[in-house]
Amino acid sequence: MTTAFFTVVRYTELVESGNMEPAFEYLGDAVIYNTWLGVVEGKENVINFLRDNIRFLYYNKSMNDWKQVQHSLDPGLSLINGRPFSDAGYDSQGFAMFEREGKLSGYTGFTLSRESIRETVVVKGNKIMLVSLSKRM
């Protein structure tokens, strides 16, 4: 397990368990949190957002495993030792991106609603820089 992968897994485990205070240590100062509820920028704002919206953690989440991806169209990126990622899990620009897909289900009124979602997390320097949680059609 690379350092970047460990950072993502540990952060999401803490948030999903409701143990928020230790999870905040993994956030970078310029973190951006993007959900269907809106976009929040800055560590203090994200902390307040997560504390205010902890009720959404009670939805049942069924997620696939994390996978490391590279979504860069920059032709200047070079392979590190013939591989796209270093031993720590970062690309040549110092970023690591992870994605997973799954289902979010919960009761709205008397009906069970299920939403397909994709969660994307970007890490730089062992700090979470971007979290994007989007509904899939």
Automatic annotation (TrEMBL):
It comes from the Eukaryota. This is Uncharacterized protein. It comes from Angomonas deanei. The lineage of its organism: Eukaryota, Discoba, Euglenozoa, Kinetoplastea, Metakinetoplastina.
